[in-house]
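Quick start: read one record
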Amino acid sequence: MTTYFPTAGLRGRDHGDTVPLQIARSVLATSGLFPDFGRFHQWLTDQKRHASMEVRVVPLDELAGWHTHPVTGNIAHESGRFYSVEGLDVRIEQTFAGSWQQPILNQPEVGILGILVKEFDGVLHFLMQAKVEPGNHNGLQLSPTVQATRSNFTRVHRGARVPYLDYFRDTSRHQVLADVRQSEQGSWFHRKRNRNMVVRVEEDIELRDGFCWLTLGQLHRLLAADDLVNMDARTVLSCLPFAATGLSGVYGSTVASPFTSCLVRSCELEAAEPHTMNALLGWITEVRSGLDSHAERIPLRDVEGWRRADGRIARPDGAFFTVVGVQVSAVGREVRTWSQPMIQPCDEGVCAFLVKKADGVLQVLVQAKAEPGFVDVVELAPTVQCTPSNHDALPGGERPPYLTEVLDARPEQIRFDAVHSEEGGRFFHARNRYLVVEVAEDFDAVRPGYRWVTLAQLSALLRHSHYLNVEARSLVACLHTLSVRPRPAFESAAED
């Protein structure tokens, strides 16, 4: 029978330890089936030799299997599946632009993002895949065990079967640690959702080429590297209970800093206090109910301020993003060659949490952010989520709130800093700098639409759909890495 873990204190099936305690032990394990990072990097290098991909940017008119509708101008696949490029007419009050039109990706399918978990020598290991995506600027990155759209796993592309898929389509014999539908980029996708799953298995599993078992401690150190753990892996990892809720049972002298101690307390306190969660949920509902929001799909040909020319769709000023075509030839994929349209952002973005210690508890500043592609108007987002150069194209060129505090932070304030790629299957070279920046305890200049929350509250919200956006979930995964004593730099970790 499938067992779910909606709260942090439940015990694992047939195990004496609580699930958070098992997770905590995995976080503390920086060696496992890979005894050191040198061997992992050798494995990764070998994978790069066997999983190559050639990606060429080509005109949209030359995409094999894709057609432009003669009336609407929408770009769609000849199968009627996968996704389409359409137009969106948007009006959202209290945003910088207020109203606008834009191209958007319409992919109504719900895919599966799933990670298998298995215990080896008393430590939980996570089955990760070395996967090449056409939009990854560096090619190969670590992805979940399964990362597949419905079109992919029903084999519309006539490609090979998706490995390990059956563990996620039939969980009746396994233990489900997380299972929730979550949104994806609301500025580029129209109501896109994926099922995020973590499934624990007891039986022996064949280890296929291109896959490896890693502890959470190893994954956390790899998250400190630029462009290594992909977006889909980050969002699934964020849905796990915070390791800190189990670390107090195994820490001993491991807590090494006041910051870590406050983070642990932030995971443990207030989670069981209904009034704090009720107040937070009430605030989110109030924002959603009070915001005048309109987003209507329109023909791509009618989108104002954008033009299709020179084989792409872009704004005359080059701001925000461009819709481009790519031709792909791949080794080690279910399909060897294909074409597709992709969104290419104009510049690198910034996603950051401001955090502070308050009465010994770490608090995180989140914003209730409206994006046109969301199912329910707004979701909680990082304190700062923007592409700074885009604001030069907006009236007045006003900076988003708190961007100055993030970009001007002193080195000792920065608790996490890495550049991560976004979804490489639909976005071409989309990257964001992810930061966690600590501010002083008396920092209280909170604007409307922003709120301080605890990590326990974030973890509780992640058990439900459409509360944290994908950028916030990536940052939550980054916060997980800070739940033990400060890590050495990734470069030194690679030399272990």
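Residues 1-16, 488-496 have pLDDT under 50 and may be disordered.
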